[in-house]
Every structure is written in C-alpha cells, then in structure tokens.
Write a structure and sequence with these properties.
The chain is α+β, with helices and mostly antiparallel strands. The protein has 1 helix and 5 strands. A hairpin with a 2-residue loop joins strand 1 and strand 2. Keywords: Membrane, Transmembrane, Transmembrane helix.
C-alpha cells in the first residue's frame, strides 16, 4: 500500500470515529434535556404547593425563547411551617419580571425525595 492510501484511510477512519462520538454525545444531551423538562413539568403538575421568599436573584447568561434565565436563591416554607433553602435556575416571561424581586413571595411547587427536594417556580416559563 502506498503512503497516500494509508493516509486517506486513516483520515476517513478518524472522521468516522469522531463523527460517531459527536452524534452519541448530541443524542445523550438531547435525551438529558428532555428528561429535565419532563421532571420540571411533573413537579409543576404533581408537586406540593408552597410559598418562597426571594433572597437573591441573578440573571444568567442563558435565555429560552426570548425569556431571560435567572437564578433564584429562595427560602421555601412548607405547608407544615418548616422551611428549607434552595437555588432554582429557571426562565421567566419578561412580563413577570416585576414579581421576581428580592423580598418578594412567590408560589412554588416541590417534590421531596428523601432529604433532597426539587423545586420549580409556578410562574416560570416551561416550553
């Protein structure tokens, strides 16, 4: 075999391998995002309603469908009066921005899984 043929086969083989790895990573990422969206929706549909106080709000560098991404530092008050702190990253419609200020009380829903709690904001944007 000539050196040129070996080089061509090596380049094609390398391209196929890297292309396959890239496609696998993309499909895993898409599946993971779909699972996260499903979890968020199920928390909002089936979660326990509660109120939360916003202690800090920070805009993230992301956005979804024109809605800004935010990180909320919350203290959630459960129905039984106990509280727990949490940080939620979500997207909010621009028209809801006045509701999301430090010290504001917002409605959330959460699910408890052992000591871990997953919280979602009721007025957040879910595609």
């Amino acid at each position: 075999m000539s050196t040129t043929l070996i080089t061509i086969v090596a380049v094609i083989g390398f391209g196929l391998i890297t292309g396959t790895i890239t496609m696998i990573m993309i499909f895993k990422l898409l599946r993971n995002n779909k699972q996260k969206q499903h979890l968020r929706k199920s928390i909002l549909m089936e979660g326990i309603p509660a109120e939360a106080i916003i202690y800090d709000i920070t805009q993230t560098s992301s956005s979804m469908d024109g809605r800004p991404g935010i990180r909320l530092d919350l203290t959630v008050t459960q129905v039984d009066g106990r509280t727990f702190p949490t940080i939620v990253e979500t997207y909010i419609p621009v028209t809801h921005i006045p509701q999301f200020q430090k010290g504001s009380v917002i409605h959330v829903r959460y699910i408890a899984n052992g000591n871990e709690r997953k919280v979602e904001v009721e007025d957040a944007y879910i595609p």
